[in-house]
Amino acid sequence: MYLCISLLLANIANHGLYDGISIACSNGNCQHHTTIIAGSIIGGGTGIILLFIVTLLCCHHFKGRPLQTNLKFVNSTNNKIYKHELHDVTIFTSGIWSSRHYQSGMWHSFSYFMLSFDPKLFKVTGSGLDNIGIFTIDGTYSIETGRMGLIKTYQLGTKKRTEDFKYQMIIQLTWNSETHQFEGKWYVQTNKYPGDAVKIVCANDDNEVHLLLKRLGWLDKASHQLDISISPDNTKKSAKIPAHIPPLCSLQYALTNCIDIRLSPRKNILRLFVDCTSDEDEKRRLEELCSKEGSEIYIKYILEEHLSIIDILNHFPSCKPDIAILIEFLPALMPRFYSICSSPLDDTRRITFVYSVLKFEPLNGRTYERFGVCTNWLNKIDIGTKVSIQTRISQHFRLPLTLDTPLIMIGPGTGVAPFIGFLEHLNLSLKSIDGFDVNNLNTWLFYGCRHRQHDFLFEEQIQMYQQMNVLKHFFIAASREENYPFRYVQDQLKANGNELANLIYNRNAIIYVCGDIKVMVRDVRETIAHLLQEHFDIPNIDQYMQSLETSRRYLLDIWS
Ligand code: FAD
User: Pick from 502, 432, 424, 435: which is nearest to 465 by CA?
Assistant: First the structure.
């Protein structure tokens, strides 16, 4: 232990940081000197300010702009155009194009739009909708250089207010004959793009914090400020105050918002508890739990039963730990991920996600009833509460480049969430892009719930996507319904085995699996492997399944 923590009994007084400095003048030159010095300071200062303003204006003017105009770029010959591609008009084909961009270290989602090429004027025009708004495209291209210079303009009133860039962006692209796509840069000033999952910053349950404070006898000190410093006796070089605890906060705040009081305590905490326990029998049991020989008991009775720090303290009533142990050794309360089930094309400042509240009974050593930390917190917060979120952008769990690729989406329970986002994205693309033919889609959704009457999530949306032909095939499993033949999603996969195997083996289908990791993910993989082997007699099925994964045709978004 290296922290020294005490609770301040009163608020820290708000002292000023600096005192004033005064300089005295002893002779008559003083005023003259002062004038010269003041003049130099004013002159120099004005120069610096002007330089600063000019630099700012230049940065503002050139930031987000290319070095060449689109016309110059398109006609510039000093590019790596591949000779055999010169004069190849087929690369400029009118129709539906897809594009995606790289920003903040990762690839963002595809958007689909219409492009028309005018071979007489070498003009390119287009329109579409992406995660920012409705846009039109105007530009020019050259068959000689294989280049396009585009200006993408968002329609007024459709651009998201959360995006901090102007309505136009410049895009300069060069044909790459190796990858068979146009590649290049877009010039725009922005930082934010929606991702496909959100991290919700949550808090511990007030009752649970109360239980802990009460058990430790700290209820009356809950609102006192924590004063944390490194202990003078510390010998550890790397000792530092945990980053997740703010320098000035109350004990109540730290236990509610910063520290995970739910996770089962690690053995090092139990070891420190030994010295804080007065009862000899309890001491011995604690020693046993954190010993090497006691590992099996520790795993079975603490980890597997998810006993929390409060459970442990309740099991060892004579243990009175120092507050520093909890602050120093309990981990940070982590935000939880939730898959976004709305499309970024939906032009509102709203995201949708779905969660199910977890409930754990007071059994097997758990000394009080509890709920999932984040889901319970979400359930309890009032409308209008400000919630801190961070977006998490998935690199690969995304719609494919071409819309006619068959999609096999498997998502029981809340695992259906990203697929609702996919279907909504396709639905909105369909509405906004001329020439988007819904018949090209080949979408399969396998969903599972307990009882179709009670917990069929997104029932109405799914029916709507079916009616609109965006969702071509839908299959549902119900694990708690008597006389219903499909208990799990894998039962439905088996029932459609022939077509699925064919789509995967012959039609390059992409398989997406989302949901709770426990058994479903393993069983679904086994089922698909079995179906493929049954229908195509693949000699090394493990290798084949691995190749699906490495070629990103078997994609997982799973949690435990
Ligand atoms: P926690 O308090 O964190 O408890 C959750 C887990 O702890 C349980 O699953 C269980 O394994 C274990 N556990 C704790 N105590 C006990 C106990 N006494 N008995 C048995 N087990 C126990 N969830 C959704 O609902 N919807 C989504 O769309 C979604 N998308 C996700 C996307 C990604 C990329 C990831 C990684 C996760 C996603 N999750 C989703 C899961 C989500 O992040 C949370 O893990 C989940 O909501 C539970 O959080 P919680 O804080 O309520 O529960």
Answer: 424
Q: Kindly list the distances between the CA atom of residue 269 and the CA atoms of 264, 265, 297, 312, 543, in Å, as whole numbers in the listed order.
A: 10, 6, 16, 11, 44
Q: Tell me, which fold does domain 407-558 have in CATH?
A: Rossmann fold (3.40.50)
126 Cα–ligand 1 center, Å: 44
State pTM to two decimals.
0.71
Cα–Cα distance, 275 to 322 (Å, whole number): 10
For ligand 1, the distance from its centroid to the CA atom of residue 358, given in whole angstroms, is 8
Domain boundaries defined on the chain: 92-189, 206-228+244-329, 336-392, 407-558
Q: Which residue has the higher pLDDT, 318 or 53?
A: 318
Does the domain formed by 206-228+244-329 have CATH 3.30.720.10? Answer: no
Does the Cβ of 338 fall within 6 Å of ligand 1?
A: yes
- Percent of the chain whose pLDDT exceeds 90: 48
Distance 522 CA to ligand 1 centre (A): 18
In short, whether 413's Cβ falls inside 6 Å of ligand 1 is no
Tokens (6 digits) for 500: 């699925």
Q: Ligand 1 pocket check: which of 199, 303, 338 to mutate, most ligand atoms within 8 Å of Cβ?
A: 338
